[in-house]
Each structure stands twice: as structure tokens, then as C-alpha cells.
Amino acid sequence: MYRLSKLRFGLPVFLFLALFLDGSISQVFSVQMFRYPNAMVSHLVVLWLVCGVLFEADDGTFDLPLGRWAAVAGAVFDLYYTGIFGVAVFIFPLVVYVTRRLASWIRPNFLSGLLIYFIDITVVEGLGYLASRAMRLNSGAGSAFLVNTLGPTLAFNLAMFVILYFPIRWVYNWLK
Prior knowledge:
mainly alpha
């Protein structure tokens, strides 16, 4: 199925479009998203990866090379946005792995996808926080991270999931 579909080219194109939209949203709405002490981080790349896993699980197949594309997108994300190579390279493929595990246990639909996305955003932000603490780039307390970064980030990204789930599903079905 994957070899002969438009999904072969559309998957990476839309993945990198989401990657650059993350930065654009953060730049355009920086006053609203990064008001001290709170920070909301856009994760449209994670949304595209999670939706890709959920929609391929609907078909009963797991033949998309989402793990490889997640690693490539993580490398571009690290080099372009953070300048520190290695964090997103491992976190994005881990998100694909966790989502595939969860999708094999839970029947994928809109509400279970929302729960899986909640878990994935928590994993992405939590591991990013732990990595920055390990490299001594962040000295903030864990409670401050939970309240000022994780909470607003979850609220923003879950709202984006609700808004973009069905348009992404339409694009995925069009590409298939």
C-alpha cells in the first residue's frame, strides 16, 4: 500500500511543513505563548506523527516508515531550533514507538487518540526537561516546569489536536 500511494511523498512533505509551522506559530504568537513565567510550546510534528500512527492502525497495518522520518525530523528540529543535536532525534522516534504500542492496546478513534496525544506530549516535554536538566541548561524546579510549561503546553496542543484531527485525517485519506 505505502509503496504505490501518494503517501510515500506526502508523509515527509507534510511532516516538514508541520516542523516549520511549529516555528512560525511560536514566532508569530510569541507574545501570547511565551509570557513570563508561562510557556506554551507548539508540537505539530508530534501531532502529525501521532495521527499517522493512529490512521495506519485504523487500516490494521504498521508499514509506514514513521520511525525513520521521525528521526530525520528530530535531527532537523534539533539543528534548526535548538542547536543541540540529539534530544529530538531520540524523542520523536520514541513517540512513534509509544504511540504504536498504545494503538495496539487501545482501538484508535478520536477520544483514544486524544488520550494518546496527551501521553505523547507529556513524554516529549518531560524528556526534554530532563535532558536540559542533565546538560545543566535548565535550573528550574520540577514543580515550576509542571505548572508553567507542561500545563499550558498540554492545553494548547490538545486544543490543536481537537481542531486539526479531522483535517489531518482527510489529508491522510487523500494521500492514501
